[in-house]
Recover the amino acids of this structure.
């Protein structure tokens, strides 16, 4: 009982109210055209699947904590645990084995769920505007569901891949009041060694992989509590 009373008192204190926050954000997601490559057997040899994607969307939530000041200066630090999701549809696909032209009947998308641990530095300006920058590391779970080629048979890149991911963050926030801020940022995300099975209509199989880079442009709200 004593510990519960102490916890409630800390949560109700002004310092605690300023230290913890939650945020929600969303915006455009732009995949930077990966080239999945690998050895396909038979006939063997390294082959590449170049892909272009339409502008997709991204959504996310985060729970953060503002760290106590370590020294006097313009920077303050905060940590975040972020959960985000992005979805992008394929626009065109070119397969090296069939020459440089894009394939017909392109369909499918890449959906990715990520969990990041972020460290963010705020540049204190003593105004309502606070620029910030940071970085995060985490795990990405990618669901690839792409197909291309002449009907009725198509080439399938259809798999899930769980991989290491990292991001860089640059943005600014505007304090509406003591509790609520609006923010906008750009996040460069790289998912490393995303791999998928590739199957042709003739039954040729193999594994293709690539690092996938994405730029997410977000707007969001941050709530202190």
């Amino acid at each position: 009982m004593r510990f519960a009373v102490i916890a409630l008192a800390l949560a109700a204190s002004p310092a605690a109210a300023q230290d913890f926050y939650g945020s929600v954000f969303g915006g455009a997601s732009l995949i930077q055209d990966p080239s999945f490559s690998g050895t396909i057997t038979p006939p063997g040899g390294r082959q590449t699947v170049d892909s272009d994607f339409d502008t997709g969307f991204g959504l996310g939530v985060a729970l953060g904590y503002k760290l106590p000041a370590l020294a006097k200066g313009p920077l303050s630090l905060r940590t975040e645990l972020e959960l985000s999701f992005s979805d992008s549809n394929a626009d065109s696909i070119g397969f090296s084995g069939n020459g440089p032209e894009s394939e017909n009947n392109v369909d499918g998308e890449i959906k990715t769920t990520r969990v990041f641990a972020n460290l963010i530095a705020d540049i204190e300006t003593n105004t309502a505007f606070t620029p910030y920058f940071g970085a995060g590391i985490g795990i990405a779970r990618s669901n690839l569901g792409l197909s291309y080629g002449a009907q009725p048979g198509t080439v399938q890149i259809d798999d899930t891949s769980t991989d290491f991911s990292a991001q860089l963050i640059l943005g600014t926030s505007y304090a509406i009041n003591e509790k609520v801020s609006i923010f906008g940022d750009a996040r460069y995300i790289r998912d490393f060694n995303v791999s998928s099975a590739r199957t042709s209509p003739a039954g040729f199989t193999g594994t293709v992989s690539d690092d996938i880079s994405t730029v997410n442009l977000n707007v969001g709200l941050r709530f202190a509590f």
